[in-house]
Amino acid sequence: MFGRETLEMLLAGIPDPAGGGSVLATGRASGLVAKTDGSVGLILSVEGLARAAAERLEAAIMLALKSADGVQRVRIIQTAERGTAERGAQPEVAIAGIRRIIGVGAGKGGVGKSTIAVNLALSFARMGYATGLLDADIHGPSAHILLGVSGRAAATADKRLIPIEAHGLKMLGMGVMADPDKAVAWRGPMIAGAVVQMATAANWGLLDVLVVDLPPGTGDIHLAFAQKLKPSGALVVTTPQALATADARRAVALYEQLQVPVLGVVRNMAGIILPDGGMAWPFGPADDAGFAERVGAPLVASIPLDPAVVAASDAGIPLDKGPVAEALDAIAGRIAGQLAL
Questions:
Q1: Residue 22 to residue 40: CA distance in whole angstroms
Q2: Rounded CA separation 73/42 (Å)
Q3: What is the pTM (predicted TM-score) of this model?
Q4: What is the pLDDT of residues 227-285, one digit of tens each?
Q5: CB within 10 Å: which end of the chain, N or C, has fewer?
Protein backbone atom coordinates (compact mmCIF):
# COMPACT_ATOMS: atom_id res chain seq x y z
CA MET A 1 0.00 0.00 0.00
CA PHE A 2 1.30 3.43 -0.88
CA GLY A 3 2.31 6.05 1.66
CA ARG A 4 3.26 9.70 1.48
CA GLU A 5 6.96 8.86 1.44
CA THR A 6 6.50 6.59 -1.55
CA LEU A 7 4.64 9.29 -3.46
CA GLU A 8 7.28 11.91 -2.62
CA MET A 9 10.00 9.58 -3.89
CA LEU A 10 8.12 9.22 -7.18
CA LEU A 11 7.74 13.00 -7.52
CA ALA A 12 11.41 13.50 -6.66
CA GLY A 13 12.25 11.59 -9.84
CA ILE A 14 10.38 14.03 -12.09
CA PRO A 15 12.48 17.03 -13.21
CA ASP A 16 11.03 20.52 -13.39
CA PRO A 17 10.95 21.50 -17.10
CA ALA A 18 12.24 24.96 -16.12
CA GLY A 19 15.26 23.45 -14.37
CA GLY A 20 16.41 23.66 -10.77
CA GLY A 21 15.78 20.05 -9.77
CA SER A 22 12.69 17.94 -9.28
CA VAL A 23 9.16 19.26 -9.19
CA LEU A 24 9.28 18.77 -5.41
CA ALA A 25 12.59 20.58 -4.98
CA THR A 26 11.42 23.62 -6.96
CA GLY A 27 8.00 23.67 -5.34
CA ARG A 28 6.21 23.26 -8.64
CA ALA A 29 4.33 20.28 -7.13
CA SER A 30 2.95 20.95 -3.68
CA GLY A 31 0.06 20.23 -1.35
CA LEU A 32 0.38 16.46 -1.73
CA VAL A 33 -2.55 14.63 -0.14
CA ALA A 34 -2.87 10.83 0.14
CA LYS A 35 -6.10 9.28 1.39
CA THR A 36 -6.86 5.77 2.58
CA ASP A 37 -9.49 5.30 -0.17
CA GLY A 38 -6.71 5.27 -2.78
CA SER A 39 -7.09 8.86 -3.94
CA VAL A 40 -4.14 11.23 -4.28
CA GLY A 41 -4.19 14.97 -4.88
CA LEU A 42 -1.68 17.74 -5.40
CA ILE A 43 -1.29 21.29 -6.68
CA LEU A 44 0.81 21.78 -9.81
CA SER A 45 2.09 25.22 -10.72
CA VAL A 46 2.39 25.63 -14.49
CA GLU A 47 3.69 29.19 -14.24
CA GLY A 48 6.17 29.93 -17.05
CA LEU A 49 5.42 26.72 -18.97
CA ALA A 50 3.98 26.48 -22.45
CA ARG A 51 0.74 24.55 -22.72
CA ALA A 52 2.38 21.48 -24.27
CA ALA A 53 5.11 21.42 -21.61
CA ALA A 54 2.51 21.73 -18.84
CA GLU A 55 0.50 18.84 -20.30
CA ARG A 56 3.57 16.63 -20.62
CA LEU A 57 4.52 17.38 -17.03
CA GLU A 58 1.01 16.61 -15.78
CA ALA A 59 1.00 13.35 -17.76
CA ALA A 60 4.36 12.37 -16.26
CA ILE A 61 3.14 13.09 -12.72
CA MET A 62 -0.12 11.22 -13.32
CA LEU A 63 1.78 8.21 -14.67
CA ALA A 64 4.25 8.20 -11.79
CA LEU A 65 1.66 8.48 -9.03
CA LYS A 66 -0.63 5.85 -10.55
CA SER A 67 2.28 3.40 -10.60
CA ALA A 68 2.20 3.28 -6.78
CA ASP A 69 0.49 0.19 -5.43
CA GLY A 70 -2.99 1.05 -4.20
CA VAL A 71 -3.44 4.41 -5.94
CA GLN A 72 -6.87 4.46 -7.59
CA ARG A 73 -7.42 8.12 -8.49
CA VAL A 74 -5.19 11.14 -9.00
CA ARG A 75 -6.56 14.68 -8.81
CA ILE A 76 -4.32 17.50 -10.00
CA ILE A 77 -5.13 21.18 -9.70
CA GLN A 78 -3.09 23.41 -11.97
CA THR A 79 -2.28 26.94 -10.86
CA ALA A 80 -0.92 29.91 -12.78
CA GLU A 81 -1.35 33.68 -12.84
CA ARG A 82 -4.66 33.20 -14.67
CA GLY A 83 -6.02 31.28 -11.70
CA THR A 84 -6.61 27.59 -11.18
CA ALA A 85 -7.89 24.79 -13.38
CA GLU A 86 -8.72 21.38 -12.01
CA ARG A 87 -7.25 18.54 -14.03
CA GLY A 88 -7.28 14.80 -13.47
CA ALA A 89 -10.90 14.52 -12.26
CA GLN A 90 -12.03 14.47 -15.89
CA PRO A 91 -8.83 13.89 -17.91
CA GLU A 92 -8.81 14.48 -21.64
CA VAL A 93 -7.85 10.83 -22.09
CA ALA A 94 -8.41 7.88 -19.82
CA ILE A 95 -4.87 6.44 -19.74
CA ALA A 96 -2.28 7.86 -17.37
CA GLY A 97 0.78 9.17 -19.19
CA ILE A 98 -0.90 9.62 -22.58
CA ARG A 99 -1.68 13.19 -23.61
CA ARG A 100 -3.81 12.53 -26.70
CA ILE A 101 -5.64 9.53 -28.18
CA ILE A 102 -6.61 9.63 -31.85
CA GLY A 103 -8.77 7.06 -33.62
CA VAL A 104 -8.47 6.25 -37.31
CA GLY A 105 -11.69 4.68 -38.58
CA ALA A 106 -13.61 3.89 -41.74
CA GLY A 107 -17.22 3.17 -42.57
CA LYS A 108 -16.22 0.08 -44.52
CA GLY A 109 -13.19 -2.11 -45.12
CA GLY A 110 -10.81 -2.06 -48.06
CA VAL A 111 -10.20 1.68 -48.08
CA GLY A 112 -6.60 1.58 -46.82
CA LYS A 113 -7.43 2.68 -43.27
CA SER A 114 -4.70 0.63 -41.57
CA THR A 115 -2.04 1.88 -43.98
CA ILE A 116 -3.10 5.43 -43.14
CA ALA A 117 -3.19 4.76 -39.38
CA VAL A 118 0.23 3.10 -39.22
CA ASN A 119 1.97 5.66 -41.37
CA LEU A 120 0.25 8.56 -39.61
CA ALA A 121 1.72 7.24 -36.36
CA LEU A 122 5.12 7.04 -38.05
CA SER A 123 4.72 10.66 -39.17
CA PHE A 124 4.09 11.75 -35.58
CA ALA A 125 7.19 9.85 -34.48
CA ARG A 126 9.31 11.51 -37.19
CA MET A 127 8.07 14.88 -35.94
CA GLY A 128 9.58 14.05 -32.54
CA TYR A 129 6.42 13.08 -30.65
CA ALA A 130 6.48 10.06 -28.35
CA THR A 131 3.99 7.89 -30.22
CA GLY A 132 2.12 4.66 -29.66
CA LEU A 133 0.00 2.58 -32.02
CA LEU A 134 -2.84 0.28 -30.95
CA ASP A 135 -4.25 -2.07 -33.58
CA ALA A 136 -7.85 -2.40 -32.38
CA ASP A 137 -8.97 -4.55 -35.31
CA ILE A 138 -9.27 -7.86 -33.46
CA HIS A 139 -10.57 -9.90 -36.39
CA GLY A 140 -8.21 -8.49 -39.02
CA PRO A 141 -5.04 -7.07 -37.42
CA SER A 142 -2.54 -5.73 -39.92
CA ALA A 143 -0.35 -3.16 -38.15
CA HIS A 144 2.31 -5.79 -37.40
CA ILE A 145 2.51 -6.65 -41.11
CA LEU A 146 2.78 -3.01 -42.18
CA LEU A 147 5.56 -2.47 -39.62
CA GLY A 148 7.38 -5.73 -40.42
CA VAL A 149 6.97 -6.90 -36.81
CA SER A 150 6.95 -10.53 -35.71
CA GLY A 151 6.91 -12.26 -32.35
CA ARG A 152 4.75 -11.83 -29.28
CA ALA A 153 4.39 -8.98 -26.83
CA ALA A 154 5.65 -9.72 -23.30
CA ALA A 155 4.24 -8.72 -19.92
CA THR A 156 5.63 -7.34 -16.68
CA ALA A 157 5.55 -9.18 -13.36
CA ASP A 158 2.29 -7.42 -12.51
CA LYS A 159 0.80 -8.58 -15.84
CA ARG A 160 1.00 -5.25 -17.67
CA LEU A 161 1.54 -5.66 -21.40
CA ILE A 162 4.83 -4.42 -22.82
CA PRO A 163 4.32 -2.85 -26.27
CA ILE A 164 6.71 -3.88 -29.02
CA GLU A 165 8.99 -1.10 -30.20
CA ALA A 166 9.53 -0.71 -33.93
CA HIS A 167 10.56 2.22 -36.14
CA GLY A 168 10.29 4.68 -33.24
CA LEU A 169 6.80 3.49 -32.22
CA LYS A 170 5.38 1.47 -29.35
CA MET A 171 2.72 -0.87 -30.74
CA LEU A 172 0.24 -3.46 -29.55
CA GLY A 173 -2.43 -5.52 -31.28
CA MET A 174 -3.70 -9.05 -31.71
CA GLY A 175 -1.05 -9.56 -34.37
CA VAL A 176 1.60 -9.59 -31.62
CA MET A 177 -0.55 -11.14 -28.89
CA ALA A 178 -2.01 -14.22 -30.55
CA ASP A 179 -1.23 -16.52 -33.46
CA PRO A 180 -1.70 -14.19 -36.44
CA ASP A 181 -2.67 -17.14 -38.67
CA LYS A 182 -5.63 -18.19 -36.51
CA ALA A 183 -9.07 -16.57 -36.51
CA VAL A 184 -10.35 -14.88 -33.35
CA ALA A 185 -13.95 -16.04 -32.92
CA TRP A 186 -15.14 -13.63 -30.23
CA ARG A 187 -18.44 -11.86 -29.79
CA GLY A 188 -18.78 -8.07 -29.84
CA PRO A 189 -18.71 -7.25 -26.11
CA MET A 190 -15.72 -9.55 -25.56
CA ILE A 191 -13.85 -7.86 -28.40
CA ALA A 192 -14.61 -4.38 -27.07
CA GLY A 193 -13.40 -5.43 -23.63
CA ALA A 194 -10.17 -6.78 -25.10
CA VAL A 195 -9.45 -3.50 -26.87
CA VAL A 196 -10.00 -1.47 -23.71
CA GLN A 197 -7.83 -3.93 -21.77
CA MET A 198 -4.99 -3.66 -24.30
CA ALA A 199 -5.15 0.12 -24.17
CA THR A 200 -5.39 0.58 -20.42
CA ALA A 201 -3.34 -2.37 -19.12
CA ALA A 202 -0.30 -1.73 -21.30
CA ASN A 203 2.93 -0.21 -20.07
CA TRP A 204 2.96 2.61 -22.65
CA GLY A 205 5.09 4.90 -20.56
CA LEU A 206 4.80 8.60 -21.39
CA LEU A 207 3.26 9.26 -24.82
CA ASP A 208 2.34 12.46 -26.61
CA VAL A 209 -0.11 10.60 -28.81
CA LEU A 210 -1.62 7.12 -29.14
CA VAL A 211 -3.01 6.31 -32.58
CA VAL A 212 -5.76 3.67 -32.53
CA ASP A 213 -6.40 1.76 -35.75
CA LEU A 214 -10.11 1.00 -35.38
CA PRO A 215 -11.87 -1.80 -37.27
CA PRO A 216 -14.11 -0.82 -40.17
CA GLY A 217 -17.76 -0.11 -39.51
CA THR A 218 -19.60 1.21 -36.48
CA GLY A 219 -19.98 -1.23 -33.60
CA ASP A 220 -19.08 -2.26 -30.06
CA ILE A 221 -15.39 -1.39 -30.36
CA HIS A 222 -16.20 2.13 -31.52
CA LEU A 223 -18.59 2.64 -28.61
CA ALA A 224 -15.98 1.37 -26.13
CA PHE A 225 -13.30 3.51 -27.76
CA ALA A 226 -15.38 6.67 -27.37
CA GLN A 227 -16.78 5.98 -23.91
CA LYS A 228 -13.86 4.26 -22.17
CA LEU A 229 -10.74 5.80 -23.72
CA LYS A 230 -11.95 9.42 -23.97
CA PRO A 231 -10.24 10.14 -27.33
CA SER A 232 -9.20 13.60 -28.43
CA GLY A 233 -10.51 13.05 -31.93
CA ALA A 234 -11.05 10.68 -34.86
CA LEU A 235 -9.95 10.67 -38.47
CA VAL A 236 -12.14 8.93 -41.04
CA VAL A 237 -10.71 7.24 -44.13
CA THR A 238 -12.63 6.50 -47.32
CA THR A 239 -12.19 6.17 -51.06
CA PRO A 240 -14.02 8.51 -53.49
CA GLN A 241 -16.44 5.73 -54.49
CA ALA A 242 -20.06 6.57 -53.68
CA LEU A 243 -20.55 3.35 -51.70
CA ALA A 244 -17.56 4.12 -49.50
CA THR A 245 -18.44 7.77 -48.94
CA ALA A 246 -21.95 6.82 -47.84
CA ASP A 247 -20.46 4.56 -45.16
CA ALA A 248 -17.95 7.27 -44.25
CA ARG A 249 -20.84 9.65 -43.62
CA ARG A 250 -22.32 7.14 -41.17
CA ALA A 251 -18.96 6.85 -39.40
CA VAL A 252 -18.76 10.64 -39.10
CA ALA A 253 -22.30 10.72 -37.73
CA LEU A 254 -21.44 8.07 -35.12
CA TYR A 255 -18.43 9.99 -33.81
CA GLU A 256 -20.50 13.16 -33.65
CA GLN A 257 -23.20 11.30 -31.74
CA LEU A 258 -20.57 9.99 -29.30
CA GLN A 259 -19.12 13.51 -28.95
CA VAL A 260 -15.76 12.54 -30.40
CA PRO A 261 -14.36 15.47 -32.42
CA VAL A 262 -14.00 14.54 -36.11
CA LEU A 263 -10.58 15.76 -37.21
CA GLY A 264 -11.45 15.35 -40.86
CA VAL A 265 -11.77 12.82 -43.65
CA VAL A 266 -8.98 11.38 -45.80
CA ARG A 267 -9.90 10.54 -49.39
CA ASN A 268 -7.60 7.60 -50.04
CA MET A 269 -6.73 6.03 -53.40
CA ALA A 270 -8.24 9.07 -55.08
CA GLY A 271 -6.09 8.54 -58.16
CA ILE A 272 -3.51 6.05 -59.42
CA ILE A 273 0.10 7.07 -60.03
CA LEU A 274 1.10 5.65 -63.41
CA PRO A 275 4.60 4.33 -64.28
CA ASP A 276 5.30 7.47 -66.31
CA GLY A 277 4.44 9.70 -63.32
CA GLY A 278 1.05 10.67 -64.63
CA MET A 279 -2.25 10.20 -62.78
CA ALA A 280 -5.36 8.21 -63.66
CA TRP A 281 -8.70 8.98 -62.00
CA PRO A 282 -10.77 5.78 -61.73
CA PHE A 283 -13.49 7.50 -59.69
CA GLY A 284 -13.70 10.59 -61.90
CA PRO A 285 -12.40 14.13 -61.32
CA ALA A 286 -12.05 15.30 -57.74
CA ASP A 287 -14.89 17.40 -56.36
CA ASP A 288 -13.51 18.63 -53.03
CA ALA A 289 -16.43 20.83 -51.98
CA GLY A 290 -19.04 18.27 -52.96
CA PHE A 291 -17.09 15.49 -51.23
CA ALA A 292 -16.87 17.36 -47.92
CA GLU A 293 -20.59 18.07 -48.06
CA ARG A 294 -21.44 14.43 -48.76
CA VAL A 295 -19.39 13.03 -45.86
CA GLY A 296 -20.26 15.84 -43.46
CA ALA A 297 -16.69 16.67 -42.43
CA PRO A 298 -13.75 18.63 -43.86
CA LEU A 299 -11.49 16.96 -46.40
CA VAL A 300 -7.94 16.96 -44.99
CA ALA A 301 -6.13 15.17 -47.82
CA SER A 302 -6.51 13.31 -51.10
CA ILE A 303 -3.96 10.50 -51.25
CA PRO A 304 -3.13 8.65 -54.49
CA LEU A 305 -2.70 4.91 -54.88
CA ASP A 306 1.02 4.49 -55.42
CA PRO A 307 2.35 1.05 -56.46
CA ALA A 308 5.49 1.82 -54.47
CA VAL A 309 3.38 2.13 -51.31
CA VAL A 310 1.70 -1.21 -52.01
CA ALA A 311 5.09 -2.91 -52.34
CA ALA A 312 6.48 -1.23 -49.21
CA SER A 313 3.41 -2.13 -47.15
CA ASP A 314 3.54 -5.78 -48.19
CA ALA A 315 7.23 -5.87 -47.27
CA GLY A 316 6.68 -4.21 -43.89
CA ILE A 317 8.76 -1.17 -44.83
CA PRO A 318 7.50 2.15 -43.38
CA LEU A 319 6.98 5.08 -45.72
CA ASP A 320 9.37 7.98 -45.34
CA LYS A 321 9.39 9.59 -48.78
CA GLY A 322 7.18 10.10 -51.80
CA PRO A 323 3.81 11.83 -52.29
CA VAL A 324 1.92 9.56 -49.88
CA ALA A 325 4.44 10.03 -47.06
CA GLU A 326 4.38 13.79 -47.67
CA ALA A 327 0.58 13.84 -47.50
CA LEU A 328 0.60 11.90 -44.22
CA ASP A 329 3.24 14.20 -42.75
CA ALA A 330 0.98 17.12 -43.63
CA ILE A 331 -2.01 15.43 -41.95
CA ALA A 332 0.07 14.79 -38.82
CA GLY A 333 1.14 18.43 -38.76
CA ARG A 334 -2.45 19.57 -39.13
CA ILE A 335 -3.65 17.32 -36.30
CA ALA A 336 -0.76 18.39 -34.09
CA GLY A 337 -1.95 21.94 -34.52
CA GLN A 338 -5.60 21.08 -33.94
CA LEU A 339 -4.83 19.22 -30.71
CA ALA A 340 -2.02 21.49 -29.52
CA LEU A 341 0.56 18.72 -29.36
A1: 19
A2: 12
A3: 0.84
A4: 999 999 999 999 998 889 999 999 999 999 999 999 999 999 988 888 887 888 888 77
A5: N
Provide long-range contacts, Cβ within 8 A and 24+ apart, for 27-31: 28/57, 29/61
Which stretches of the chain drop beneath a pLDDT of 70? Answer: 1, 81-93, 180, 185, 188
Residues 6+ apart with CB under 8 A from 257: none
Buried b vs exposed e over 289-322: b needs ≥16 C-beta within 10 Å? Answer: eebbebbbbebbbbbbbbeebeebbeeeebbeee
d(CA 55, CA 71): 21
- Classify 213 as helix, strand or coil: strand
* Phi, psi angles (nearest 5°) of residue 127: -75, -5
Distance (Å, rounded) from C-alpha 75 to C-alpha 243? Answer: 47
φ/ψ of residue 6, rounded to 5: -60, -45
The span from the CA of 206 to the CA of 99, in Å, is 8
> Rounded to whole angstroms, how far apart are CA atoms 119 and 123?
6
